[in-house]
Fold this protein.
Amino acid sequence: MVAAGLLAYHNSFTGPFIFDDVKSVSQNLTIRHLWPIWEPLSPPRQGGNTVEGRPLINLSLAVNYAVGGTRVWGYHVLNLAIHILAGLALYGIARRAFLGPALRGRFGNEATTLALAIAVIWTLHPLQTEAVTYVAQRAESLMGLFYLLTLYCFIRGAESQTPGKWYVCSVMACLLGMASKEVMVSAPLMVLLFDWLFVAGNLREAWKRRWRLYVGLAATWLVLGYLVATTHNRGGSAGFGSEIAWKDYGLTQCRAVVHYLRLSVWPYPLVFDYGTDTAKFGVGVAACGLALAVLMAGTLIGVWQRRALSIFGVWFFAILAPSSSVVPVATQTIAEHRMYLPLATVVSLAVLGIHALLKRYDKVVFVALAVGLGFMTWQRNEDYRTDLAIWSDTLRKVPDNVRAHNNLAIALFAVGKATEAMQHFEESLRIRPQWAETHYNLGNALARSGNPEEAIAQFQAAVHILPNYADAQYNMAEVLLSLGRTQEAVEHYQEVLRIDPNYAQAYYQLGNVLARSGRLEDAIAQYKRALQIEPGYAEARLNLGVASAGLGRSEEAISQYEEALRLQPNYVAAHNSLANALVRAGKFDDAIRQYEAALLIEPDSAEIHCNLGVTFERAGRAPEAIDQYKQALRLRPDLVTAKNALARLGSK
């Protein structure tokens, strides 16, 4: 099974960060270091960011960053490792369930074969690619792993003569799952149902034997409740306060769940982003709703009659319920990664059905299915090889997808295809003129292409549609600042902070404005506020040090430079500033080491070569100083400081 997973997903390792990966990884300052531990366990709050309210996901990304920075292959490797471990846990659950008293008579002789078939087909199914290949959806797969481990550890405990350690592991897995994603909410109830149907035989006996376990599992809901409450409906992107009415969302989910079932059986076409459209009541939606009602009724009847196989129906509906019922998720009305765990129901029933029909020939079909599905997964991973590829594929399948046009435009602009990018921005706005995100991204593109006034107009349009669009306000302030319209920029930075008092970058930029105007004490206050929110903000550390040095607080400046380097060891400006401070303190040898470290990272910096020359000269090491001045002039022949120094030292 491990080998099959590696074979199917080996071509996913070079896929870039896409869509939410940028905010979750590339721009996520809270993953830049692992200690103190509460920093990576405090993910940023950015209005629906994938890591928001999910501290364990953020911590796992911080582990990746600590090992390999933003090198993307490491994130893909860990995602695949999580997925394969989840497959192994599913194998363990299925095998022990088939060997248990409720199913041993029907499946006991083939328990290992059937369990392996379920786990391998589930692992290789192409419907899983979004949860595995798309880095940010580690939220789904890691939650899925802990969901499966919660049940697996319970089963092992129920079979053990000393169950305590297994029950503790079950509660811990449940706790970690709650810290990974809200879908984990049904796990304690699933354990209770499994106990009822497969172990204890009735609810009273299950509670009598294992009430401590169930109290522990239920206690994990407190953690989930706290995380949900403190993220305020995930920044307004989920919950009944979102812009999508619960009735419209519910109707959409009738169609979505039936669509998921179809993709489970025939996984084509797979779509990365279905957009945010909702369904209206009609014959098609009514038919989907009726089909789901029949399936739910059959599941409830099976549970009432204590039929062991009814657990498959409960598993399917209970796990989908948080995201695919009537609680709106405004950013995605349909998403394939939601089938990560529910797919186990379809695969299990298919495997058992094939076994019942084909008996001893079932293994041939299982192998054929695994090979075919694995090949389709390999093919689907090819769509993730670039931003252009995944968004082009999405548009081929959903031509009127506003967000796909918008994101394809961003990808085209990034590779220098500005004309094509503008066409897709325009098409996005033609389909939905009031789509603030497209106005915002078009503004960013115009700013980078040297059209600041047009960029400001687009940011203003975005803010007109969404007055509390903090990112649009912030980027408008950035453009205004670049045009020298400082007071207007300050007003927009202040508006950003009114909308979002935890917007660290706005405090940082206000600090920069104040520092340039000579108000160093006020600038320091802004930098410190930014660092209270984002302690891993290396740039704020550096500028706090510069402002402190300007006030003569050399020790504070050195401390901040050193902290900036701890956070970002290859930060050239921090090495240079620290070296300058050490020179002023008379610590020439330490300063030289910092300049040399900076030159290892940026060997073509004439300024640093010159600074190193000055330090060598002050330390009485004239030959080395001359060499550094010459290197500075080789890079910048007009560098007056180096010319004068060479003349002073009598060298040409």
In short: The domain at 434-482 is CATH 1.25.40.10 (Serine Threonine Protein Phosphatase 5, Tetratricopeptide repeat).
